[in-house]
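Hey, resending since the last one bounced:
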Amino acid sequence: MNILSIILNYLRQKRHIINLKKKNVLICHPKFISNLNNLILYKDVYIGPEAWMDLRGKLSIGNGTIIGPRIKVHTSNHNWNGNMLPYDDKYIIKDIFIDENVWIGADVTIMGGVSIGEGAIIAASSTVTKDIPKYAIVGGCPAKLIKYRDESKYDRLKMQNAIYLKLKKEGKTLKNDVDRCMNSNNS
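The structure tokens again:
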């Protein structure tokens, strides 16, 4: 890669990041993103530090989604059923869709071809290999259903536009760590 292409690539990424800031999107110190053109981000999205994203396929992340640190996203996989061992030289590419208001914990791995439904919660250190329905709370390796969010409460909060990242940008969330900490009796 010559110096001119390095500079042009840097400027394209810089322009992309400026456009993300306008949408209240923050990608915090990513470790690796293979193809920014395949990353589709809506408004009010946060991606925690050290994200690793293989984006040969598309990754779409909906409004209000929060992703914890060290997420690993794989939109492609090796072809183990090809003409070589252990796999051949072709990739199997599968897009990933993450709906709005999803919370994904730290150290989660998401495999290609899955959809994560609106309002879902993925527990830390989970591996998502199959579609997750809306409002589902899942965890484990592979991720399994734990329970569902209260749908009526979710709908009420959504109608009130009580989206954390949006309210945080507007200065309407707690800033003091003492006030932010709560015990299980406060929820």
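The mean pLDDT is 90.

Sorry for the duplicate.
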